Every structure is written in C-alpha cells, then in structure tokens.
Amino acid sequence: MIKINQLSFYYKKKAPLFADFSLNLESGRIIGLLGKNGAGKSTLLSLISGLIQPNQGEMTVNGFNPSKRNPNFLADIYLVPEEFSFPHVSIDCYVNAFSPLYPSFDHQKLNSIFDEFELDGCSSLNKLSHGQRKKFLIAFALASNCKVLVLDEPTNGLDIPSKSQFRKILVGSVSDEQLVIISTHQVKDIDTVIDKVVVIDNGTIIYQEDTEAISQKLYFDTVPSLAEAEKALYHEQCTSGYKIISPVTNGKESGIDMELLFNAIINKTI
Amino acid sequence: MRNDILINYKKYLFTVLGAFIVGYLILFWQMPTVENIYANFIANNYNTAFFTGLLGLGAVVGMAFPELENKIKTSNYLMLPASAFERMTVQFLIRVIGAGILYLVVFWLDAHLARFSALRISQGHIDAHRIESFHFSGLLIVKNDLLSKLAFIFGIFSIGMYLFSIRIFFKRFALVKTIISLVAFYALLMCVMVLFSHLFYPETIGFRVNVENYDLAPNLTNNEIYGYSISLLSWLFFLPLGYFKLKEKQV
Predict the structure, then answer these.
(1) Which residue among A39, A119, A212, B5 has the highest number of C-beta atoms inside a 10 angstrom radius?
(2) Which residues in chain A are closer than 8 Å to B7, comparing Cβ atoms?
(3) What is the pLDDT along chain B (251 residues), one digit of tens a residue?
(4) Half-sphere exposure of residue B188, counting CA atoms within 13 Å on the CB side?
(5) Contacts of residue B9 in chain A, CB cutoff 8 Å?
(6) Per residue, what are the HEC states of A210-240?
C-alpha cells in the first residue's frame, strides 16, 4: 500500500530531515505514527500525501507516485490535517460540494457518524467550535472510504467523550482495504485502536512493531516498590508506585501502555 | 467547477450585483442632467468608464486561486482530487471567461440603463443625441484594420493572463505582488531598451529609447510588428508557465 525506499528529504537551508528512509505499510492496518516534536511525523505525512516532494528515493502510495498528484491517487487518499480551514458554508453545502469528488463516499455512513458526534448538517462550519469542526472533518474522512486515511493529531481539540467516540467510530468504520495512519503526541488517545506502532526520531524509524507482537513480548504493570521496578526493562514513577515494562513470562499478556512504551523507546531501553 | 460554484456562488452573485450598481451609478452621474442640459456624453466617456472597470476585472482575474494564499488552504486545495489542468481550467473558466462575459453584459446593461434613465428623468429637456448610445465597436480605439483590433484585444487578454498565471508564484498579497512584478518587468525591459539605444545609437540622450521605425510591409512598420507579436503571443507563454508552477506547487 505504502512503499518508501531510501527516501531523502530536506527543507531549504536546513539539515536533511530524512536520509535513506524506508518504510512499508500494508492495508487493513491502523498505524500509530509516534515521535517527539520535530521528529518528522507531519513531514512524512505531507510526503505520503504528495504535498511536498522528496529530494531522492522512491515512494509509492496505492501504486501511485504521490508527487505527481494524479487525480485517481487524490481520490483515494484523505488527509485530516492538524490545522484546517473551511469556507463559510453549512455542513450540508460542504458535503454536497466535495463528496462527489470521492467515488466511494458513503452518505449513510456520514449521517451515522454525524449522529454519533451530534453534528447537525444545517450548522455553519465556521460557527462550530474547533472540536466540532475536527469531528466533522474526521466524519467526512471516514465517510470518504478512501483507501489511505492520514490523520494528523486527530484527537487534538476533542473533549473526553469525543475521544472515546472517535476510537469507537474509527474501529467500526475502517475496512480491510483501508490503511489508516494516525500521527499523534497524545498516544493514550489511540492506544486501543492501533495495530502497529511506528516511532520515528530525527527522521529515522527507531521502532516498528505490531501491537500483537508487543503484547507477546512485553508486559506492562504497576508495582509498589522500587526494588521490583529496577528489575524491569523500563520504569517510571507514578502515584501508585512504579509503572514498569518487563519481558513477558509464562505467556502472561497485558494491555499496552502506549505512553510508557513510547518513553521507553525514546530512552532507548527497548 | 461545480464545487467552486456551490461554495462561492454568494460571493460571485454579490460581486456581479455590486459591479452592476457601481457601474450604473458612475455612468448615470456623468450623463447630462436637467441642470446641465448642454453637456454631451460621447463614446469616449463610455471608453473611460469601460477601461476603468476593466481594472476591476483585472483584480478579479489576479485574485484567481484564492486557496493559495496560505499553507492550510493550499494543503486543502492540493489534496482535492483534480489534476493541475482541471484546477487551471476551472479558474480560467470562472475568472477569465465567465467574469469577462459578465463584465461585458453588465457594462452593456449599465450603459443602456443609465442612458435610458438620464433621458427619462430629463422629461424631454435633453436631446437624445446629446447622450450617445453605447456600442462595443466604439471601444476599439485603434487603427481601423483587423490586425490592430486583434492586437488590442489580445493585448488586454495577455495582461489578464499575466495576472492570472504569475499569481500562482505568490502566496499572500498575490495580486499586489503580481502587479509589482509586472511593473518591474516593464521597467527592466525599458532599461534594456535604453541600454541598447546607448550601445547602438551613441547619440541617445539620458533615458530615451532610440528605435528605428521603417516599413516592413505596406502599412506595417517594424515597431508595429514588435508590438503585435507581444500582444498576440505573450499569453501563450504565461498560461503554460502558470500551469507548470501549479503542477509543481508544494506546501
């Protein structure tokens, strides 16, 4: 679905952000793209979307070269950017104007997501709050049924109930033919929906693993004493003691604490 | 195109309505009134109004691709499933063909309505011949031959295409920057001409341009050919330039 081979990219008058970068992503997955500020997450999403062109290397998305911005490629990829702007029209007008551009657009799905998010088609887009506009954009992206959905910080600006609605809707509406890439700092918001973690730092992939494999290898727990914590691969102090990551023993599995995992990866203990 | 019209139809309607009202008022106020019954309104008065209005049309053309004004809107625009050719065509049809035809229609309506109301309000005190009727042919203020007329029309079109295409190279204040670039381009051209004048005609004084004028064909001088070539052909260069810039546009 996405094949990146030995890609190089740098912004003008700046040091290379990506050098010899390679990544393969298959459809039917929800990918969590994690990284610190300035790690290159948004740039990678822009490269995948064809908004910027790599300086070197090969990249295909859905069989297309994104830089060419072929209309068939653009009809099958939807980017939900971190910052967005809308024309001064109602939700219904926006949907009428832009949905025909996406051949697989599902109006029924859109209406059911609107119901979940409590969005009204008659509302003027620019009179909605930032969170509501974000929910609209997510709803539109999911209803477009594009094969590649790129979500940059999708939970920014969403309130707590909306975040859980987002997770529920996302899991319920993504098919096996689709690939969803979620880039976020707020790793806790997506830890239950992603099935692959990709961590990048300074333009390099420092970790990529399926969540299923992580659960089989690593055990996440909270222990009361430092003595127990020090035996672990990684530990962090918390109110109830220490959060730890240790190797799985006796086939015992746990849920993944994505924030703890991310910190462990960044601190190079995993 | 459909989505552009669906999103912007109110803006377009208000612009046309505004242009209609402003055009009517400007023409009507210049026409003879009961207090000033000996004044005349001749074809030249229409021309002044028409070419002043044409600056407004130039602004509409130069404000094509409004989505390119900032990074966020540019991202949204470039992600829409359409080719660079389709994007260019939509803007060309709306901002050049559509707005151009509407401008001609609106001006024609304004001119006739203003004349009709001025005569009607005067209640017979003003002779109808004091206010000339408007005809598009009166706008072609050039030599009465086909080539000159074509060069005049395509000259205006080429300036429009410059505003339309070069705008793509800029983000914020694109229209202003495009006009500045046009002035700078013209100034550069004049500087080169002055330089060559000094090189080939040492007797040239100061910033004068010294160009020989001679007949290349009956009723056709070398300078006319130079002017006609620029007028008739330069748009053929500007449109592809804009197209390739749009195709290569990045955020």
Answers:
(1) A39
(2) 87, 89, 93-94, 97
(3) 888 888 888 999 999 999 999 999 999 888 877 666 667 788 788 888 999 999 999 999 999 999 999 999 999 999 999 999 999 999 999 999 999 999 999 999 999 999 988 888 877 777 777 888 888 888 887 777 888 889 999 999 999 999 999 999 999 899 999 999 999 999 999 999 999 999 998 888 888 888 888 888 888 888 889 889 999 999 999 999 999 999 999 88
(4) 6
(5) none
(6) EHHHHHHHEEEEEECCHHHHHCCCEEEEECC
